[in-house]
Predict the structure.
Amino acid sequence: MRKILIVDDEERIRELIRMNLELAGYECDEAEDGEAAVLKIKEFNPDLALLDIMLPKKNGYEIAEDFIKADVPVIFLTAKDSVADKVKGLKLGAEDYIVKPFESMELLARIEVALRRKGKDTEVFEYKNVKIDFSTREVFVNNNHVEMTAQELSLLEVLVKNKNLALSREKLLESAWGYDYFGDTRTVDMHIQRLRKKLDWDDVIVTVFKYGYRLEIK
């Protein structure tokens, strides 16, 4: 399980981020100021740190170097939205710079990209009797290979990367088929039914009434 450190002086923001990340399968810890955050490098040994910039004691710019030296990728998560601030953060060596407010799906996607870039992600997902290797694009049920179309795999990957999050049909269509796809949301329903049947996941890919679907991992 990948470990994410959330550094922000506002408890409400830390709790909201933590809730979304833990639902997505990450282990999380928190720090409310820069000095406490630096101590967490050894105490928690995170795989990635989300840093606010305007922190008590030491600001995000000051502590970013400590994380980067420890080979912990950094994403700045801040209300400071000027180009100068973004450039400064990226020049310090941050993997990304996200301006508040943000969508949880965007944050999860950017975390995934940063971890992959640093070689700290995992390409294999396993749940119960199902194993999915995204690097080889192979799926196994009870160790038996299951044939998947490219589109079924794309949809499955979106569900897995956003596990335990409710995704609208429109969002699934946009993420798995692309912005330029002209089909309708019935296409999503058809592919969901195929995935449920092939993986025996009737109780895992859950329908969210009048909205969409959620990959429910308990």
The mean pLDDT is 89. The first helix runs from residue 11 to 23. The two ends are 14 Å apart (CA to CA). The longest strand covers residues 3-7.
